[in-house]
Design brief:
The complex is a heterodimer.
Chain A lengths: L1 H34 L2 E4 L2 E7 L3 H7 L2 H33 L5 H9 L6 H11 L6 H8 L14 H27 L2 H9 L4 H12 L1 H16 L3 H6 L11 H11 L3 H25 L7
Antiparallel strand pairs in A: 1-2
Helix pairs in contact in A: 1-13, 3-7, 3-10, 3-12, 4-7, 7-10, 10-13, 12-13
Chain B lengths: L3 H22 L26 E8 L3 H17 L3 E8 L1 H13 L6 E5 L3 H6 L14 H4 L2 H6 L1 E2 L2 E2 L2 E2 L6 E5 H6 L14 H14 L4 E3 L12 H9 L11 H7 L15 H15 L18 E6 L2 H9 L7 E4 L9 E2 L3 E5 L6 H11 L2 H11 L6 H5 L9 H11 E2 L7 H16 L4 H16 L5
Parallel strand pairs in B: 1-2, 1-3, 8-9, 11-13
Antiparallel strand pairs in B: 3-12, 4-5, 6-12, 7-9, 7-10
Helix pairs in contact in B: 2-14, 17-18
The chains are: A mainly alpha, B alpha/beta.
Chain lengths: 291, 458
């Protein structure tokens, strides 16, 4: 009787969460899956034509989609390669609790709580070819002004730089949490065995932090794949599609081209790619240690 | 081993993309009074005496315009006590998204204000209701030609023109005086683009820190806004040339049947104009590659391509006078042309009170209220007879702007796929201004536009 009552209580508490998940996560996924099989115009919602997998076939020859996917992968890969080691280094530095690390922590985390739209506008101004802050600094040290967002070769790296600046604070925070969760005794034992600082990091910190690193990698990947506002505000995918990202492309197809069915199909493919990447990262970064 | 729950949680943010798109799909609406009433409901028809609520979606305007909208609602209510008007106001940039959301959700307002060039799209998709049966006698014939073409579809007017714009080349008179240049004031004497460039080069030599030509303030700033930058290409054409000629196609930018832009936006003349346009940023550096907010009014640029709204902004920014502003007709390559188009409003095809909605529109678009509207914002009227009632249009500069509108004004290429055309061509123009190969960029844009036009069969 009591077990039954406990079960009812648990169910009562869980219901809102499940209803929310169902309505706002799983139902939209179902709608997107279904919609991807129809020819749908955003402005004519009650006129739909079943076309099966035609949108998916179209995607195979969609040069812009391929370009957007390649840009997104480059953006994500570059962010992972630069942001994670940088975050790890900064987390270790903060963990040393030297003088000034509190200020450093605030400085690192400030961009994370800055609205991305505001950050994009400010960075856009900083990247201005003539009067921008960055070119002024470069000019002061004798370097020619750079085109940044107006160059098809520099626009993507410029957006990546903004992404790293904005998201590093969050990854530092997560890694810092992981670092602080590692029991001190492990390091003391290592010290007694004569391990150097670097050896402790390599053989203790990194293996014990694998679960946290996995979480950080997956989170960074998903955040990077969702990049949108920076592109919309700073480059609109240009020059020459050099910063066209998949989510921005989906947005354009849905809300500019009104091709809702195709946008659904693109969103479904993006979701599948993200699930696959998350699973792959989970497999690669599986941990052998529990503590 | 990571739990499946945790894995699921980790991928959930990605699903937001799907959620965003799905949210727009909404449920399939049940039309209430969808389709257009076949019974005549002209301006003299009897309106219902039952309580009616009309919902209006419009864009945020200046305080003077906002006050005017409030007055109109109050005055209309006095004559029609049973009709309540509820207005929802959003920033102009949000208007299109808001319309999309309300239509997709199956609950559009009775009246919505739109960007005029979108009229054909909304008419084609049966979102707007044709207005001819509701118009007062002579109203349609009084509309400026370019506006009428822009806001009609298959011979019927689908949106009421708020106002009209036709850009010209505005300049800082003090800066032009400093180099001893007096730009023409008559349309017949308009510069060619090469003559304008010569002046820009003089300006650059005189004041290297001031841009001779302001980068576009439209859209995202910088090149890539067809309303402004399409003029270069279209002026390389000739509307009076034979319809099958490349010159005519360059002006028209789209085939008469609306099925193709190949050979139109990428004609030999358009490519030549594109290369000239590209040189403005890449060779002569007389205009910035990126937008500079307020450059002209901040005296960081000597000239700007803008519409007469700039005069109002100048007065707002410099109520006690800032600098002497002048305006010269839009330069051209082959034949002068200016792109027209401004705000408008229409009645939803799903409105269950079209007659009452039409009565309100007829009220706010009557002569007296249009003159009040002109007082509030000083944008050009979209009806010919109103110019006669506004003495300001008898003298330069407004007389010249009016002449441009009436004689060389051309709507943006008329197609139900206008927004798509605009998006593709804007990206191409921006790329060209940043150094992309002109011919291949324009040709690719033409091919891409044609693909989309095919989705809008007649």
């Amino acid at each position: 009787m009591r077990r039954l009552r406990d079960g009812a209580t648990i169910a009562l508490f869980l219901t809102p969460a499940f209803v929310g998940l169902g309505l706002f996560h799983f139902l939209p996924i179902f709608i997107a899956l279904r919609g991807s099989l129809f020819d749908l115009n955003l402005l004519v919602p009650d006129r739909e034509t079943f076309i099966g997998v035609e949108h998916y076939m179209t995607m195979l020859s969609d040069e812009e989609f391929r370009r957007s996917l390649l840009n997104t992968v480059v953006y994500t890969g570059t962010k992972l390669v630069i942001q994670l080691p940088l975050s790890f280094g900064l987390a270790l530095l903060i963990e040393t609790r030297l003088r000034g690390t509190t200020l450093l922590r605030s400085a690192i985390f400030a961009p994370t709580v800055t609205a991305v739209a505001i950050a994009a506008v400010i960075w856009g101004l900083m990247y201005q070819p003539q009067a921008g802050l960055i070119n002024s600094i470069l000019g002061a040290v004798g370097i020619e002004p750079q085109s940044f967002l107006t160059s098809k070769d520099q626009a993507l790296p410029s957006i990546i730089a903004l992404g790293i600046w904005q998201d590093t604070g969050l990854t530092v925070l997560i890694l810092l949490g992981g670092l602080q969760g590692i029991p001190r005794d492990f390091y003391e034992a290592a010290q007694l065995d004569g391990a150097s600082g670097w050896q402790a990091v390599r053989h203790l910190t990194l293996p014990l932090l694998r679960r946290t690193i996995l979480f950080t990698v997956v989170l960074t990947t998903i955040f990077a794949f969702k990049v949108f506002a920076e592109v919309k505000i700073m480059t609109e995918g240009g020059p020459e599609n050099s910063t066209l990202m998949t989510v921005y492309y989906i947005y354009k197809k849905a809300f500019v081209f009104l091709d809702l069915g195709y946008a659904f199909a693109l969103a479904v493919v993006l979701m599948a790619i993200l699930i696959a990447i998350a699973l792959l990262q989970g497999r690669i970064l599986r941990t052998r240690f529990e503590y | 081993m990571e739990s499946p729950t945790r894995r699921l949680k980790s991928i959930v943010p990605a699903l937001v993309v799907a959620l965003l798109l799905s949210a727009c799909a909404g449920a399939t609406p049940t039309p209430t009074g969808a389709g257009v009433s076949s019974s005549p409901a002209g301006p003299s028809q009897t309106l219902t005496t039952a309580p009616v609520t009309l919902r209006i979606l419009r864009y945020t305007a200046t305080k003077a315009e906002e006050d005017l909208h409030a007055s109109w609602i109050a005055e209309f209510k006095k004559d029609h006590p049973n009709i309540t008007i509820e207005a929802e106001v959003v920033p102009f940039g949000e208007l299109s998204n808001k319309i999309q959301a309300s239509v997709a959700g199956g609950n559009p307002p009775d009246i919505f204000f739109i960007d005029g060039p979108n009229t054909k799209t909304y008419a084609y998709l049966k979102i707007l209701r044709p207005l001819d049966q509701y118009l007062p006698a002579g109203f349609k014939a009084d509309i400026v030609d370019a506006t009428l073409e822009e806001q009609s579809y298959q011979g019927q007017l689908y949106s009421m023109p708020d106002r009209q714009t036709a850009p010209a080349l505005f300049y800082n008179k003090d800066m032009l005086d400093a180099i001893g240049v007096k730009p023409p004031t008559k349309l017949a004497d308009a510069w060619t683009w090469d003559e304008a460039l010569k002046v820009w080069m003089q300006l650059k030599a005189k004041s290297p820190d001031v841009w001779p030509l302001e980068p576009s303030r439209f859209g995202a700033g910088g090149a890539g806004f067809y309303y402004r930058d399409g003029i270069f290409s279209r002026s390389a054409g000739d509307r009076s040339a034979p319809i099958s000629s490349s010159l005519y196609k360059t002006f028209a930018a789209i085939s008469p049947d609306g099925t193709t832009v190949q050979g139109y936006i990428d004609s030999p003349e358009a490519i030549t104009a594109g290369k000239w346009f590209q040189d403005l940023t890449m060779v002569h550096a007389v205009t910035s590659k990126v937008g500079i907010p307020n450059a002209f009014l901040d005296k960081k640029a000597a000239m700007t391509i803008d519409h007469e709204g700039i005069l109002g902004r100048m007065n707002t920014q410099y109520p006690n006078g800032g600098f002497n502003i002048g305006v010269t007709p839009m330069p051209y390559f082959k034949k002068p042309v200016v792109m027209t188009g401004s705000n408008a409003s229409g009645i939803s095809a799903r409105s269950t009170h079209p007659a009452e909605a039409a009565a309100y529109l007829n009220f706010i678009y009557n002569d007296a209220n249009r003159l009040r509207y002109w007082d509030a914002n000083r944008n050009m009227p979209a009806r010919k007879s109103l110019f006669d009632k506004l003495p300001a249009y008898k003298d330069y500069p407004l007389s010249m702007l009016k002449e441009q509108l009436l004689t060389i004004g051309a709507p943006r290429p008329p197609t139900p796929a206008w927004a798509i055309f605009d998006s593709i061509i804007n990206a191409a123009i921006k790329d060209i201004s940043l150094g992309a190969p002109v011919e291949t960029t324009l040709h690719k844009a033409a091919v891409d536009v044609d693909k989309e036009l095919a989705k809008y069969p007649k």
